[in-house]
Amino acid sequence: MKNCSPWLSCKAIKREVRKLKYVDEGAVKMVFLSEWKENKVALSQLTVVPPTPPPLSPAPRFHASAHAVP
Predict the structure, then answer these.
(1) Residues 67, 52: contact at Cβ < 8 Å?
(2) HSE on the CB side for 35, CA within 13 Å?
(3) Which residues contact 39 (CB under 8 A, 6 or more apart)?
(4) Distance CA 46, CA 25 (A)
(5) Which residues neighbour 56 within 8 Å (Cβ) at sequence distance 6 or greater?
(6) What gap in Å lies between CA 33 and CA 23, rounded to an integer?
(7) What phi and psi values does residue 34 have, to the nearest 5 degrees?
């Protein structure tokens, strides 16, 4: 590559980068061998992570007792 370019926008990636081959994946991303302007590049694509649920509210307090049964 003769010239450096700034980071590509999401729109430019969708329009200009062509996935050639799935390479591997990790916990949060998939990696593809791709092509951009006749250059081979690695495309890291984040996997969809569901939003974190809100914290649980404190459990209601119950009064419990145990009695022996004759």
Answers:
(1) no
(2) 5
(3) 1
(4) 10
(5) none
(6) 6
(7) -135, 175
- Give the Cα separation of 42 and 4 in Å (integer): 16
What is the model's pTM?
0.60
Distance of CA 2 to the CA centre of its chain: 32
| pLDDT per residue as tens digits for the range 23-61 | 999 888 999 999 999 999 999 998 876 677 777 666 555
Give exposure, 25-50, as e/b (b: 16+ Cβ within 10 Å).
eeeeeeebebebeeeebebeeeeeee
Q: How many CA atoms lie within 13 A of 34 on its CB side?
A: 18
